[in-house]
Request: fold
Amino acid sequence: MWSDNNGPFEGKHYRLTETLCSPAPVSSPRPRIMIGGSGERKTLRLVATYADACNLFGDAATIAQKLEVLRRHCDDVGRNPDDIEVTTLVEVPPDGDADAILAQAEGLAAVGVDTIMARSAVPEPSRELEEVWGTVMERLGDIKTA
Reply:
């Protein structure tokens, strides 16, 4: 569907007379690949080999250690680790403490996290995200990564 060939497709489960994908997905030369996980032997090696971005789990110290492993894998495959966007998923703190959010974000940025994704598991997560994270969004934008 991402090629210039709109001809038929015959697969194991699907048969299409035309493989038209319109509008075409944004990709140059292909869609970006993100691999999530922190397994040091397999997952981070796959990140070094194939990914445009990775999503790592843990606090700043844990992520710093995982990034060191990723750097070694990148060295092994001849890749610049700076070409891989580093992301992480953080929980909204239950108390909504803006200073705690900023301190956590600064710690993550200091070890090389480029993007933080916030997650909330309460019944109305959008309201909690707005009320808790919304208060610090401008200040979060000022944090520079390592």
Remarks:
- DSSP finds five helices and six strands in the chain.
- Residues 91 and 107 are 15 Å apart (CA to CA).
- Strands lie at 9-10, 15-16, 34-36, 53-56, 85-91, 115-119.
- The chain has a mean pLDDT of 88.
